[in-house]
Design a protein that fits this description.
13 strands, seven-stranded mixed beta sheet, alpha/beta, globular
Length: 228
């Protein structure tokens, strides 16, 4: 099984889950580099993490090393990658963390499941929307509402990379204990108007842009009054 070293984190990913672009990013050290740097700067031993789109388990492994496994909850829609993330947590000495199978949806979502498009490059997999194409397969996965995830995880920090699923995810009242969001935005999917909607939903929740470790499409938001 291919093994990759990203700083102090060791990741193993089965060949069948690796696309060429993912493998190149892992081998070069560019895989989730900006998100990981932001997490290492902002996350503390007193924090609790909710990670949406856990993939290989990289972000949850970093957080688990800092705050301990019981402080970490991950969400992943691809069943194979759920097992990869769990194995990588243990490989990096993190015990007691949770990886939930499902896709995060807004609190207004009414169904129990959501259609998910699995792609060869697992990091490009996403909830099926109008125009979704070129998926290697579509599966039904549990729909996990954000309000319930935040309540159950008691997260103070949220990391989110869900390939456009963030568009209306934050159009709800976020708990005041949530102090920081590390968000990968996807302007190519929803354009300037969609990016504006994401930012507006966060501002309504008293979350503002934080320049420290924001860069490119990785954007950090902090709760007003808690900033660096």
């Amino acid at each position: 099984m291919p093994v990759f070293q990203l700083g102090d984190i060791t990741l193993e990913v089965p060949p069948e889950e690796l696309g060429e672009r993912v493998q190149i990013a892992l081998e070069s050290g560019r895989f989730e580099r900006d998100e990981a740097r932001a997490l290492r700067v902002h996350f503390t031993p007193a924090d609790r993490l909710l990670d949406l789109g856990s993939g290989t388990g990289y972000m949850v492994s970093i957080a688990g090393r800092i705050a301990g496994g019981p402080a970490v909850t991950g969400v992943e829609a691809l069943p194979g990658m759920v097992e990869v993330a769990k194995a990588n947590l243990l490989r990096n000495g993190v015990q007691g963390a949770r990886i939930l199978w499902g896709a995060a949806v807004p609190m207004t979502y009414e169904g129990g499941h959501v259609r998910f498009a699995a792609r060869k490059q697992f990091w490009a997999s996403s909830i099926v929307t109008t125009g979704t194409a070129r998926a290697r397969g579509q599966i039904d996965v549990p729909a996990l509402r954000l309000d319930a995830l935040l309540r159950e995880s008691r997260a103070t920090v949220l990391s989110c990379d869900i390939e456009g699923g963030e568009l209306d995810l934050f159009d709800t009242d976020l708990p005041t204990d949530l102090r920081l969001i590390i968000l990968e935005i996807h302007p190519k999917r929803y354009g300037d108007a969609g990016t504006g909607r994401v930012f507006a939903h966060l501002l309504r929740n008293q979350m503002v842009y934080c320049a420290r470790r924001s860069g490119g499409t990785t954007v950090v938001f902090r709760r007003i009054g808690t900033g660096d």
